[in-house]
Design a protein that fits this description.
By secondary structure, the protein is an all-alpha fold. The protein has two domains: 37 residues, no CATH class; 78 residues, no CATH class. The chain has three helices and no strands. The longest helix is centred in the C-terminal third of the chain and has 12 residues.
């Protein structure tokens, strides 16, 4: 009897909706499932015309984008969870620096030291009160 109950349950489940509309039965739905096809992404998918009108604004005149990967985004760092999030530009003292977009300067110095996470948490907690 114990082995008969699972078979009975499966049979009732599979044919439960087949009375009114057999196309709504579980077997009918399962038999029509097809694999989803995604378009293949290749290097030919990108069209440079999409971005040809965009221009990179640089913060300093006559200062080029660095070529060393350590000065570019996603370079490994000992701070900020180990990932560099910007581009390091180097210019002489007194060189005018422009903002390339709206925002806030979060750091502009030499010898930066990361503050401990607990200090930041305490500072945020204190400012929230």
């Amino acid at each position: 009897m114990k082995s008969f109950i699972p078979f009975l349950f499966c049979g009732l489940t599979l044919f439960a909706q087949s009375g009114e509309n057999p196309n709504n039965s579980i077997l009918s739905v399962i038999s029509t499932i097809e694999e989803l096809k995604f378009p293949e992404i290749t290097s030919n998918t990108f069209d440079p015309a999409w971005v040809d009108s965009l221009k990179l604004q640089l913060p300093c005149d006559n200062i080029l984008v660095p070529k060393r990967t350590m000065r570019l985004p996603n370079a490994p760092r000992d701070y900020r969870n180990g990932t560099h999030r910007g581009i390091d530009f180097f210019a002489n003292w007194g060189t005018p620096v422009k903002a390339v977009a709206a925002g806030i300067v979060i750091r502009a110095d030499h010898g930066y030291e990361e503050i401990p996470a607990s200090f930041r948490v305490n500072m945020l907690d204190a400012s929230a009160k």
